[in-house]
Amino acid sequence: MAQHAYMIGTGIGNLAAGLYLIRDGGWNGDQITMYGLETHGANDGAPTADYTNEYSNQALANTKGYLAKGGRMLNEETYENLWDLMRFVPSLDHPEKSVTEEILDFDHAHPTHDVARLMDKVNGIRNKGDQNDYSHMQFNNLDRVLLTKLMMMPESKEAKLNDIGIDDWFADSPHFFTTNFWYMWQTTFAFKRQSSAMELRRYMNRMILEFSRINTLEGVTRTPYNQYESLILPMRKFLSDHGVTFVNNRKITALTFKDTPLRDDIIVTGFDYEEVDNANKPGHQDVDEHDFVFDTNGSITDSSSYGDMDTPLVENHEYAPSAQLWKQAAGHFYDLGHPDKFFNDRQQSEWMSFTVTNDNHDLLNEITRITQQQPGNALNTWVDSTGLMSIVVHHQPHFHAQKENETVFWGYVMYPRRHGDYVDKEYIKMTGREILTEVLGHLNEVDDSRDSIANRTDELMATTVNVIPVYMPYASALFNRRAVGDRPLVVPKHSHNLAFISQFAEMPFDMVFTEQYSFRCAQLAVYTFLGIPETEMTPMHHYEKSPKVMARATKTMFR
Questions:
Q1: How far, CA to CA in Å, does 261 sit from each of 252, 258, 290, 329, 349?
Q2: How would you write 531-552 as a 3-class SS string?
Q3: b or e along 17-46 (b: 16 or more beta carbons within 10 Å of the residue's beta carbon)?
Q4: Rounded to two decimals, what is the model's pTM?
Q5: Candidates 35, 134, 203, 415; catalytic one
Q6: pLDDT for 215-245, tens place per residue?
Q7: What is the pLDDT of residue 178?
Q8: How far apart are the first and last CA of the chain?
Q9: What is the tens place of the pLDDT at every residue in 408-424?
Q10: Is 203 a catalytic residue?
């Protein structure tokens, strides 16, 4: 009897695992079943109405426009697994090309060069060639010493950073948190002061190539459309065409395990589920001990809440369903990590995003004029905004369904409990209209033209189809302070058929909040189960060992 693989969660990691089973394991698609709550996940992007038809705790009054909970930046040099595997998947728009070819061709034709990365009321856009120019990192010598000490710590000593926050590491140099580097770093990667110093150490090593160009984001690789349409949909179609079964609207609530004498062996024998589109009807799936189970043990978009143009969101207090299943499994075995470290402290992990849809190009043209750059280049942060607000204007169109007259951009607020600068209420309590008021107010701060954007506020509001605020309580949970052992191994010790594929599984060296991490988790899990040597895994670059890269980074540190 042929083996079977059960994928709990249909995020990019499990999709990649399915591809590895087919490409490198020689499996047939009908040996794979994928269970998901929704089809979009963290790399989403879709018409807003699509979300009202999926698993959601809140219906929207205004379902016009588009919704992108967030976005992740690809990188050509360090996303080795992604580019290798996606050469196996045809593009949907250009079937003669692979997804990898399509994305890299697009990015090379539309390279990123941000010229308005940081902005504030006093300096406007910080690219004026003075000491506030964001090409200067603004470190003092103690900042440099502490950052270098962190980066140079060997991986074997990583436990020294157990439960240490970035704020703890730089406690003797609070100046670090006033530098251009920190403003750019935290809003590019979604770190907070209290985030894990252990993860910052990994980032500084893995992404050292980007250190010397973080101010322009030249290392960012963009997809032709949003990542849901450019990456997820081609993967899903390829898997479906090869016979993989997708079961949507299934909430897996518990794993059942074989009772072994010393509880040393992890053997999944089945799982319970609820049909969320059928009055939560319960069910059970048996699993043969020779089959494989791949669990997404944590999703940063779980328990999201939505609002619309004139309706504030209502916070969803539900413990993340994906982490709840992880917690249930960890209750059976002592070495499966500690999910509460990541999903029981919203202050560390929460932030919110918003997607703006307009029925003409007027607002987009105003942003282009003020920031001095074309769509596709911009990640703009107002460093003196109370909530630390940023906006991202993608190359247009960002959605296949986007009409010629429509424009879409999204933004995010790192501290949603803080009050706005132009609307006197917490961001989390604002309507989409009020959030747009904040955006327009901050744009006006750096608009030095005689006919400023403030004169067009009513007109621009009238062109806005919708603004969708999204509160994500676990958006930065993967950066929460942690200790060695808080994340389970991709394939835990003594596991016969259970693997974890997510940003909350443990692998050496690599960094989370990237598609690369999910892809590599998938490859490691598949290769471990199939007995393929780790030496056959996709090679990773180690730019932290390159003298040229380190020389450029050192020069940047003193700039």
A1: 26, 10, 19, 18, 39
A2: CCCHHHCCCCCCHHHCHHHHHH
A3: bbbbbbebbebebebbbbbbbbbbbbbbbb
A4: 0.96
A5: 203
A6: 999 999 999 999 999 999 999 999 999 999 9
A7: 96
A8: 63
A9: 999 999 999 999 999 99
A10: yes
